[in-house]
Amino acid sequence: MVHLQTQQEAKMRMVGMAVDVVRREGYLSLYSGLSASLCRQMTYSLSRFAIYETVRDEINRKKKGVIPFYQKILLGAFGGFAGGFIGTPADLVNVRMQNDVKLPVKLRRNYAHVLDGLLRVWREEGIRKLFSGASLASSRGALVSVGQLSCYDQSKQLVLATGYLTDNILTHFLASVFAGGCATILCQPIDVIKTRLMNSKLEYTGVLHCLTETARLGPKAFYKGLLPAAIRLVPHTVFTFIILEQLRQHFEPIQLESTRYH
């Protein structure tokens, strides 16, 4: 997806880009940036989920009811914004590692892994560079969290309200597919700008310049990589919430039972 987003012109589509990368660099190149991607998830996703779930449950407990949708949106945006900022350094290294295979050999950064990338950026470019694109990463985090967390909660609530389905895997699947689609559409334009900025070598003077240059390519430029983004984000959302709901069903009763004796 990073390769598609960093094209200045739409020369290749998803399959063509993948074939070209494999032909030039081998199959393992498709996993470039895996360590950085995992680190990003452990910082960004854990933070936003923890903030959203903890605050939501506390508000529900105090109100003895379910918070309205607009409050879910605000809470999802806040949790996502905070998580996006926390995960920016790993996100920057992830973008650079994935895009390395497109660059000429002499221009490649060749980070060995995420820790090597973080340390080298710190030493060679300064600590502020680690948070390059933090405003966009945080904004993207806010949008994707609204799409995933807030929309999942609301769609699950609406499905259960129909009375046709119970709180089971099918309900979780339907709600998470809808949430994944919302998240993909909401965050794709800002994701394109964020990726271009993080990967730039001073081509852009700032967010506005990058936005302007991308806009010159037409509205479709903001949705470059939409299909691979959906292929990545929708299944990710589905598996995340199905696993999370199973953990809730199996471990929350135990936790509630244990708190009675304290």
Architecture blueprint of SSEs:
Blueprint: H1 2-5, H2 14-25, H3 34-63, H4 69-86, H5 88-99, H6 114-125, H7 134-162, H8 169-199, H9 207-215, H10 226-259
Helix pairs in contact: 3-4, 3-5, 4-7, 5-6, 7-8, 8-9, 8-10
In brief, what are we looking at here?
The protein has 262 residues and is mainly alpha-helical.
Largest sheet: none
Q: Rg to the nearest angstrom?
A: 20 Å
Strand-residue proportion: under 5%
Contiguous helical run count = 10
Helix content: over 70%
How far apart lie the N and C ends? 50 Å
What do the pLDDT scores average to?
Answer: 81
Helix and strand pattern: HHHHHHHHHH
Principal-axis shape: elongated
How would you characterize the overall build of this protein?
It is a single chain. This protein has 262 residues and is mainly α. Helices cover 73% and strands 0% of the residues. The chain contains 10 helices and no strands. The longest helix has 34 residues, at 226-259. The chain is elongated and about 60 Å long. Residues 1-10 and 254-262 have low confidence and may be disordered.
